[in-house]
């Protein structure tokens, strides 16, 4: 069995699209959280579920990136 390339978990160039979407979502949710706190507004009900969803998407994307077979080159 080949050695796992753990760089696929933290190097931006090695992330797949699912991981990139999840990281972007986490950053934007955290930014919205900070803005709401700074403005003194309360968070909407269920706001914290965003973090759970983005984390789950990142985990699924990471598993796909680590254990999925790379696609062969497509020639059109």
List keywords for this structure.
about 80 residues, mainly alpha, 2 helices, about 0% strand
Question: What does this entry show, briefly?
Answer:
With 76 residues, the chain is mostly helical. 55% of the residues lie in helices and 0% in strands. The chain has helices spanning 17-39, 49-67.
Approximate shape:
elongated
Summarize the biggest pleated sheet: none
Helix segment tally:
2
The helix content, as a percent range, equals 55-70%
| Average pLDDT level | 90
Low-pLDDT stretches: none
Element-level helix/strand string? HH
Q: How would you describe what is shown here?
A:
This protein has a domain of 48 residues. Helix content is 55%, strand content 0%. The chain contains 2 helices and no strands. It is mainly α and 76 residues long.
In terms of topology, how is this protein built?
Layout: H1 17-39, H2 49-67
